[in-house]
Amino acid sequence: MKGVPKELIAIVIFCVTYLLISGRRLNFLPLNRPAAALLGTVLMVACGVMTPAQAYRAVDYDTLVLLLGMMIISAYLYLAGFFEWASGWILRRAATPQGLLLSLILTSGVLSALLVNDSVCLMLTPLVVAVVARGQLPLTPYLLGLAMSANLGSVATLVGNPQNMIIGHMSRMPFLRFSASMLPVALAALAIEYLVLQLAFAGVLKKTVIQRPQRESAPLDRRLLIWTCIVLALVFAGFLAGLDLSWTALSGGAVLMVVARRDTHEVLKLVDFHLLVFFAALFVVVEGLNGTGLPDQIYQRLHGFFGASSARQAWSFAFLSVLGSNVFSNVPFVLVAGKWVANFAQPELMWKVMALSTTFAGNLTILGSVANIIVVESARSKVEVGFWDYARVGIPVTILTTIIGMAILLVLG
Predict the structure, then answer these.
(1) What is the pLDDT of residue 216?
(2) 137: which DSSP letter?
């Protein structure tokens, strides 16, 4: 492409990649999200925007290693029968449909804070569908509760979702300091979600009576569960002690492979390698865009919009992050907007604002986060959740959780 500026080529490649990632598969180019990102990476190198060496350096291996480690630990919890056991245990003890909804929201929220929210949804959705069907309950409120709480609960830690992992690496913020501010935000958001879902489905839930199962549907591998819980506790102790997040998580996964005595092929089949490929390729595509200087030019144009005071900057950045996450998807937005944070009055506060707003933005529509898509697609054979079915609950949840979460965050700092 002689005579065409590299900057223009990079912008075109980024736009094409984004359209393929954010939209539905096209008949003439049936690529899923990882394949679309991989195509963008190849085009960046093939068109001379980046060299292969620059592409390798653009990949944030720390984030990929952290994702891999947490997904391996999640896989062992699944193989131990923990998710199915927990679902059955909750159903047997729930007094009312409303109580079951609250228990599901808390379970999904807590697990998503400890593990990667996408993995939690991938493993919990089939079990929730089975449990709710066994209880002869309406599926829609519970599926929405699962998806939304997985997004909301994941904001509490730097390992709860992929964008938080990237923020943790870019900001170098201590694990405990981040969670001290974000845990109260996550708890308030889960409470708001429960209240909104209760109001939205009040009529349906009041008319339903739970049919409880008499016994667990599958045995629990107690030995494997104990080992996994011990390793998970040690991993989080390492996080709190300030050890490297990525290698602490991967070390925990490696230890489990040794002590669990399970076929590691069975374990690795449960790891979402598509997600790892997606992020690796996305790092390269976004770095190609950053090399054009366009993100810096956008920041200069928006500089006046952000204002001068910390509070004004926080609210403005939160609004922009919610909008950007739904237009560009949260991970690409974090990769681009993360370059701006050092320019704000309180960079650490703004990292937290970005984590909150990009995570809560995922609840706005059914396409707002991967977790939502996983839940809806996994349950499609049992119930069809339409765009408006989700949005009529997701819009108020997103607005209320973002406003109240921001208020809490600004008080706590």
Answers:
(1) 54
(2) -
Task: State if pTM tops 0.70.
Answer: yes
pLDDT one-digit tens code per residue, 123-135: 788 778 877 776 6
Alpha-carbon gap, residue 37 to 282, rounded angstroms? 6
Name the β-bridge partners of 29: 26
Residue with tokens 């030019």: 297
Concatenated DSSP letters of 325-349: HHHH-HHHHHHHHGGGGGGSSSHHH
Retrieve residue 94's tokens: 């729930």
Q: Could you please report the per-residue DSSP string of 54-68?
A: HHHHHS-HHHHHHHH
Residue 214: pLDDT above 60?
no
What type of residue sits at position 64?
L
In the chain, the amino acid numbered 237 is A
Nearest C-alpha neighbor of 353 from the set 365, 340, 370: 340
- For the CA atoms of the chain, what is the radius of gyration? 21
Structure tokens at 331: 């991970």
Mean pLDDT of the chain: 85
Q: Given phi > 0 = left and psi -120 to 50 = alpha, else beta, which region is 48?
A: left
Tell me what the mean pLDDT of segment 269-285 comes to: 85
CA dihedral 306, 308, 312, 316 (to 10 degrees): 10
- Describe the crossing of helices 139-153 and 387-412 by its angle, rounded to 10 degrees: 30
CA distance 137 to 407: 36
